[in-house]
Design brief:
Length: about 1250
């Protein structure tokens, strides 16, 4: 414990005392055990106090999970150390596994075995794990966690079908230690071998360091003799499955020139096949390989599944397991030779021949011409062809003549399915009959296609080079490898063609590099392989797809979980890489620039919500501050070695605590006075000021923690979460009420009225914190609010609901109390209740228990009071709210729509008088109505009483008063009075009054008339009738209605005012005689009177109707006058059909009249002395027994001949125009004007005579007639 200058009573008898408490009970100081050590400081300095095991004996039962706390008493205060967890149990191994994947491993491979324990452990030294192989795995990593990793590197001779440790005691310390955080040594017993949670139970790891060996060499070919072109397949059997890359070869013993068989198939099995094609010059009586080392890799590999290289030693030549011991294969490529030729005579000389080919090296579907040339004339020879390995041989067939008896040919198409020399046999005989057979094998068939295999790079791979590795199965004459872009970056030069040359055309394994052009970074290519052999066979198109060319150096960034740390902190760092990485990245931790780098693998796991490469480490003990770097070794899928980004962070190591400091605090009280001796934790708040050292940059992103301690308690309590430091400036922390209450004031030790102290602690970014925070002055806590009582609107015993004109807003309260610091004052606020209620403001009234507010009142507004009490510590009670009052400053109103008169017919036994009533405020409470009989002043209440009474029924929006009909008197006057009252007590300012009279309804009556009436035919008949009703004018809705149920047709009834009607009718001549008329008058209440009388129509004679004159209608000449008809229409008469017509000619010298009963008279006008060219009026009258009706017209009688007018052309002596005019032809008739009739034609000759009567010219023609008025 460090005691600083200025501490209390240094040098006196106050001792430092060391106590401890079992189970960390900090709520009761009496639970302290000790003291176990003391020291008396006389000056500032550092003092050590200690306790050993013996001090704890007998002072409690210490078991796992118990907690132990030490406290130091100094100057009447207690200072606590961190709590210690008691751990008496050793850690146990729970399981053994491995982070290495299941699979087979060989010499040099690393196996990482993991031992999982039930708690975190700390490792020192190098513990070991003994394995079943006889070797041990050494501790590799994991200290500070519950998983330890032991690494073993596979050595030559190791073997295991399922790797396991040696036994359950295989874990040994090897001079080191494995302990838990309490220092308990771990129990090293492992799970049972092969049992649950053992290594072999959790993993399947195979160790295989034994190389495959050759066990047998044979051939799939039958024992036989083979010639040029024959294919020999040799098989090599190993003692385990092997995998082949490239094209290993097997050297054979084939005579002067040794040949090689090339690997062709078998990878993934224990038997490999090698093929060899017999060539010219090859010979062997029993084919075998050259020597026991004849199997060579030729740049390829032969390995088992674990990766062990095969031993290539073959069985001894001729020994068991060798090729010659297993097979009897003879190679013979030499042609037979003639050793002796003899002839008995010249006639026995056989012909000789030379066989030639249009192409001696051929393939399937080639067309070949074979020519046989003889030394003499021969008969037609035959030819046969034997193909090696094909069923399409040609039997003896006649050859084709060419016109030269010595030369014959044969054309053929090479079949499929054969490879090697074709045996051609020609049989021929000369003309003497000497025959010869010729055998030739110079034509070789090659149907073996060129083939590419073992190609690298593989499909979907990434490369950072332009190399291609492949194996050719045979020699070729041409070939190419093409890089063709299919995706990714644009490559304007694509495709890139690499032409195979020189040694690349020879069978075997090759590596060729594209050098003529460069591939484009980021492009994706297909590799296309083509080849052609000397026979013209083309290889099948081989495509290796989707190869990404990537020469971009990847940049990986390292991120730390923190930027600063201290000793023993667990730090996580991870890689952020823009692309996938090859294999497992390795990382080395570098402390303070140390060049010693030890790389360890990273783990691919989920961290911060993503899968990424992660590594965790504990900061090693280091008394000096410094930095940690992470150096990464990684490569992308193309093999480009990654570099670390320029923004590589460094983790700062900081083991130095911040400097001590002092704090101060204040209590801002925005709404209340400052009570210096109290803190109530509710209406008050605390603000703590903390000095931050501007010189200590490690404080940036550090934290500040506020702690509180009750007087007499040794426990400091953290308040809320630590606050982060963002600037090196003094910092202010405001402690909210809820924070203080939750973290401190609600603890049992914080009793009301108890002092408490605050202090602060600063943590730097690494987590180091100040050792001696300084506390500020103490405060007394009073959090108990006063108790609330009762509140009401109004004063004393009142609790009102409404205010009317003249009232004021008042409230009163009682029953508030406070048991701690006592009541200080009351506060009230007035709330205007609206859609969004708001307290207008709060005001203090001291300790008064009532208040009258002079707020100006508004009609129909509503208010309520809010009251609370405040104690001396500033706590305020619950706020109580009154029920509220409604301001009603407007009186209610009532009215009705009533009549001045009421008839008994509309007053039913339960009829009611009703009207409307309303109140714009508190609402209607009552609407009392009274009915007074005016004749005696009595009031109605189910009868008539001398005293004033009311009777009412209040509706939501009106009033009603029921009055029995039997209680009303005819022609009596009544007065109705209604006075509305609202809920606030306001009376209607002017009561509603209405007077009416009750009337018993009387029947209406028609005025008396004669019961018989008369009218002439075709004359207007008019009759006015009046009805009388004594109720008219008494009741406004009593009106009269007239109807006429019986009446003649077309008679019209019209109303005259409210009580009279008039009848109008003009009868026709056919309506003569008597007709009955009936009328009814009815009032609004159904009372009626009926009037009935007889109306007689007297007939009257009617004159004949006017008629029209028909002819004559024109002027007429003398020729028409002898029997001129005068005609007119018949006159109509509704009375009589017998008429006398009189025709009168009105002349200047007298009138002439003619009578007839017909409508036509014929006259001889010449006998009547009719005037010529003088208008004469003629008329006709018709007469019945009483009346005469005239009709007249005017005509003119003409006796003047027409005038002839002509025009003549004197030159040509022809008639130009003829014109005849006779004005007398027109007639005058009621104002018509004289008409001209004109006959005209164009100037053509007409027939006429000269003066001597000689006809000069005759021609018929058409005439054009026009008629014109003189105007």
């Amino acid at each position: 414990m460090t005691v600083s200058e200025g501490s209390q009573n240094i040098g006196q008898d106050n001792q430092l005392k060391l106590y401890f408490r079992n189970n960390a009970d900090e709520s009761n100081l009496s639970g302290l055990l000790g003291p176990y050590d003391t020291n008396t400081p006389v000056a500032a300095g550092t003092f050590d106090l200690s306790a050993d095991n013996t001090d704890f004996n007998g002072n409690g039962n210490y078991t796992d999970d118990n907690r132990l706390k030490f406290l130091i008493s100094a100057f009447s205060s207690y200072y606590a150390t961190p709590t210690l967890l008691i751990d008496l149990t050793a850690s146990q191994v729970t399981s053994v596994s491995a982070s290495t994947d299941d699979g087979s491993y060989t010499v040099g491979d690393n196996i990482d075995i993991t031992i999982n324990l039930d708690e975190k452990v700390v490792v020192s030294g190098t513990p070991q794990l003994a394995l079943e192989t006889g070797n041990s795995a050494n501790y590799f990593s994991g200290s500070g966690s519950n998983t330890l990793t032991f690494r073993y590197t596979v050595q030559n001779g190791d073997g295991s079908a399922d790797l396991e440790y040696a036994n359950t005691s295989a874990l040994t310390l090897n001079g080191g230690a494995i302990t838990d955080e309490a220092g308990n040594a771990a129990t090293l017993t492992l799970p049972a071998i092969g049992g649950g949670n053992s290594l072999s139970d959790n993993k399947a790891i195979i160790l295989d360091t034994t190389a495959p060996t050759v066990s047998n060499v044979s051939s799939s070919n039958a024992n036989d003799t083979y010639k040029i072109g024959d294919l020999i397949t040799i098989t090599i059997e190993f003692d385990e499955v092997v995998h082949v890359t490239g094209t290993p070869i097997l050297e054979l013993e084939t005579g002067d020139v040794d040949r090689s068989a090339s690997y062709s198939a078998g990878s993934g099995t224990n038997t490999l096949s090698f093929t060899y094609t017999v060539q010219s010059g090859d010979n062997s009586p029993d084919l075998d390989y050259k020597a026991t080392n004849s199997l060579t890799l030729n740049g390829g590999t032969i390995r088992d599944v674990t990766g062990n290289d095969a031993t290539l030693t073959l069985p001894a030549l001729g020994a068991a397991g060798s090729l010659s011991a297993n097979k009897n294969i003879v190679i013979d490529t030499e042609n037979p030779t003639i050793t002796n030729v003899s002839a008995s005579n010249a006639d026995n000389t056989k012909p000789t021949a030379v066989i030639s080919y249009s192409d001696s090296l051929v393939k399937k579907d080639d067309a070949v011409t074979i020519t046989a040339s003889f030394d003499e004339d021969v008969q037609t020879p035959t030819i046969a062809v034997d193909y090696t390995g094909s069923s399409d041989d040609i039997s003896a067939t006649a050859m084709t003549a060419t016109g030269d008896p010595k030369v014959f040919t044969h054309n053929l198409i090479i079949p499929a399915g054969n490879t090697g020399a074709a045996i051609v046999t020609v049989n021929a005989a000369d003309l003497a009959g000497n025959d010869s057979t010729f055998i030739n094998n110079a034509m070789v068939v090659d149907n073996n296609l060129p083939q590419f295999s073992n190609i690298s790079p593989a499909r979907l791979s990434f490369v950072n080079h332009q190399r291609v590795q492949y194996t050719l199965n045979k020699n070729i004459v041409s070939g190419s490898i093409t890089w063709t872009r299919i995706d990714g970056s644009i490559d304007p030069l694509s495709p890139h063609i690499l032409t195979l040359q020189d040694s690349s055309l020879i069978a075997g394994t090759h590596t060729d590099t594209l050098t003529a052009t460069n591939l484009i970074n980021g492009s994706i290519y297909n590799l296309e392989f083509t080849a052609m052999d000397s026979a013209g066979n083309s290889s099948a198109l081989t495509i290796i797809d989707s190869i990404t060319y990537d020469i971009q150096i990847p940049v990986v960034n390292v991120a730390f979980s923190d930027t600063m740390a201290k000793f023993n902190d667990l730090i996580t760092f991870w890689l952020d890489s823009p692309e996938a990485l090859q294999n497992i990245p390795q990382v080395a931790i570098q402390y303070n620039g140390d060049d010693t780098l030890i790389y360890e693998p990273m783990n691919y796991e989920e961290y911060l919500g993503e899968l990424r490469w992660v590594r965790k480490l504990f900061i090693i003990p280091d008394t000096t501050d410094g930095y940690v770097n992470a150096v990464v070794n990684a490569a992308d899928l193309a093999g480009n070695v990654a570099v670390t980004g320029s923004d590589l962070p460094r983790l700062k190591i900081d083991n130095t605590a911040p400097d001590d400091f002092e704090i101060s605090y204040s209590r801002p009280l925005p709404n209340y006075q400052n009570f210096p001796n109290y803190y109530n934790g509710k209406t008050q708040s605390l603000s703590v000021q903390i000095p931050i050292s501007a010189a200590d940059t490690t404080l940036l992103k550090g934290r500040v923690q506020i702690l509180a301690q009750a007087e007499g308690s040794a426990v400091w309590h953290s308040l809320g979460m630590a606050d982060t430091i963002y600037t090196l400036l003094p910092k202010t922390l405001n402690l909210s009420d809820s924070l203080l209450n939750a973290d401190f004031f609600d603890l049992p030790e914080m009793e009301e009225g108890r002092y408490f102290t605050l202090k602060a602690r600063i943590f730097d970014q690494a987590g180091n914190f100040t050792t001696s925070p300084v506390s500020a002055d103490t405060l007394i806590l009073d959090r108990i609010a006063p108790l609330a009582g009762l509140v009401k609107d109004g004063l004393e015993s009142q609790d009102i609901d409404y205010l009317i004109p003249g009232d004021s807003l008042r409230a009163s309260w009682s029953g508030f109390s406070d048991g701690h610091t006592g009541l200080l004052e009351y506060h009230y606020g007035l709330e205007f209740i609206d859609i969004d209620p708001t307290v207008l403001d709060f005001f203090s009234v001291g300790l008064d228990t009532n208040v009258t507010d002079d707020l100006a009142l508004e009609h129909n507004s509503e208010y309520r009071f809010h009251i609370f009490a405040v104690d001396s510590a500033g706590n305020h009670s619950d706020t109580l709210t009154t029920d509220g009052v409604l301001i009603d400053l407007v009186a209610p109103v009532s009215s009705a729509a009533l009549e001045a008169y009421y008839f008994d017919t509309e007053w039913y036994e339960d009829s009611t008088l009703s009207g409307i009533a309303s109140d714009d405020g508190s609402g209607l409470r009552r609407a009392p109505a009274s009915l007074k009989r005016l004749s005696d002043g009595y009031f109605y209440k189910n009868g008539w009483l001398p005293d004033s009474v009311t009777s009412d029924a209040l509706l939501p929006d009106g009033w009603t008063l029921q009055v029995l009909k039997s209680h009303l008197t005819n022609r009596e006057n009544y007065e109705l009075t209604v006075t509305a009252i609202d809920s606030a007590g306001n009376l209607q300012s002017a009561p509603y009054k209405h007077n009416f009279q009750y009337v018993v309804n009387q029947e209406p009556q028609f005025a008396a008339i004669s019961d018989t009436q008369a009218v002439l035919e075709d004359s207007l008949y008019t009759l006015t009738l009046t009805a009388y009703d004594v109720d008219r004018g008494t009741i406004s809705d009593d009106f009269l209605t007239f109807t006429m149920p019986i009446a003649p047709r077309r008679i019209v009834m019209e109303t005259l005012g409210d009580t009279s009607i008039v009848l109008n009718w003009t009868p026709n001549n056919w309506e003569t005689g008597d007709t009955v008329v009936s009328l009814i008058v009815e009032d609004a209440f159904g009372a009626r009177d009926t009037l009935t009388f007889t109306l007689t129509v007297i007939p009257v004679n009617d004159p004949p109707l006017p008629f029209n004159l028909l002819s004559p209608l024109r002027e007429f000449s003398k020729a028409d006058s002898a029997n001129q008809p005068f005609t007119w229409r018949k006159s109509v008469d509704v009375d009589d059909t017998t008429h006398t017509y009189r025709l009168t000619l009105h002349r200047s010298n007298g009138d002439t009249t003619f009578s007839t009963s017909d409508t036509t008279i014929h006259l001889d006008l010449l006998a009547i002395d009719f005037p010529i060219l003088a208008p004469v009026k003629w008329s006709v009258t018709v007469s019945d027994t009483q009346f005469t009706v005239p009709s007249s017209d005017t005509l003119t009688f003409s006796m003047t001949p027409p005038t002839f007018v002509s025009s003549r052309d004197s030159v040509y002596d022809k008639l130009i125009q003829e014109r005849y005019i006779d004005s007398s032809w027109a007639f005058i008739n009621d104002g018509f004007q004289t008409l001209d009739w004109e006959i005209q034609n164009l100037p053509f000759f007409l027939e006429y005579s000269d003066s001597a009567g000689q006809t000069l010219h005759a021609q018929s023609d058409s005439f054009l007639f026009t008629i014109n008025t003189h105007t």
